[in-house]
Amino acid sequence: MNEVEFQAFLDRISICWVNRDFQSWVDHVALPFTSITLNGQLYNDSIESLKKDWDLYCQALDTLKISQIIRKVMVIEVSEEDTLIGTYQTQMFAGDRRVVGPYTSSAMLLHDGKTWRISSIMNALGHRDWTTREYLN
Known about the structure:
The chain has three helices and six strands, in the order H-H-E-E-H-E-E-E-E. The chain has helices at 3-18, 22-27, 47-63; strands at 29-37, 40-44, 68-80, 83-94, 97-111, 116-123. The termini are far apart. 16% of the residues are buried.
């Protein structure tokens, strides 16, 4: 995967969230899926646990009236033919007003023989932080 392909992957996952399309998100995820933030680690080892976390994330998006998510590639590091780490910046908007970000994340992607899937995300700002951070107002 190169930077252009990684950007297309980020665009697709952003659309999943904006459209609240859980199945499309599942199609981009490798289980187990781990999300690491300042508040700790979330480990999803099943579709059911992934769905619970999805619902919380969507609640945060709804609370902030997020209508657009923009992720931009910063750098990718291919560690093997079937593994890469991509670092990107995320911003979220309600209409034309930025309400979250920019913040930086790194994701590990694995190629399963057919397609690339995200297996973990690490960032300092998680969806459980968005509605409690004073600097977002």
